[in-house]
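Researcher: Let's do a round of design. I'm pasting the structure tokens now; please hold your answer until I've finished.
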């Protein structure tokens, strides 16, 4: 198997902006899950 990476995948891997958005999206998802699991942060005022 030779290293056959499609141009689109390579572009996404090499593109720091896309990586950055992916990272933000993932951390937002984690934040929502964590906040939801703890009933939000409304109790702290």
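Researcher: That's everything. Go ahead.
Model: Designed sequence:
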């Amino acid at each position: 198997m030779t290293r056959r990476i499609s141009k689109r995948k390579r572009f996404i891997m090499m593109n720091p902006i896309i990586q950055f958005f992916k990272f933000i999206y993932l951390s937002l998802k984690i934040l929502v899950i964590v906040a939801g699991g703890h009933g939000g942060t409304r109790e702290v005022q």
